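note to self — DONT lose this again. spent like an hour looking for the file last time. sequence + predicted structure for the chain T wanted, 170 res
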Amino acid sequence: MAQEFVIKSSQIEDKINQLLPSQGGFQPGVDFSASTMVIPIVDLTETAEGGTTRQDLQSAISLASSTVFDVTNTTTTIVNTTGYWRVTAVSSCGGSPTVRNSIIMTDGSTTKQMWEHLMNGTGNSCLNIDYIFYLPAGVSLQVKSDSSGATIAGSVRQIADLSGNLVNPI
């Protein structure tokens, strides 16, 4: 048998006002209640919006949607289009005295190093990269290798547009 409870919470009232403005929000004199009865909820939002690919599958790397890069001893712009971009790569550094690979974001006047693989001394080192970058208008993503002993190679694919609408692989 279900039990009913009256809930007095200004935080819940504020959230109801935010989420349901067309309902006039939470009215004075109206009690918000909860029940111990279990009511199953079926979320059809994804299907109703036209997207049925699971989010983890949506971010898959694909032949037609991915752009590959292989950078040694130079700086290369890999993305200059707005949106959310997945970068998967391998960074390899070896030799001496100091070699490095970097992933950089720039708007033309400000440059920020977002990721770096630094090898100081002798030996070899490899690191896997799998990051998602957000690029607003005017910002580009660059990969930099500062010596012939440093290589960064991989692929980049847009996974969502600037508004966050998912871009399925093709």
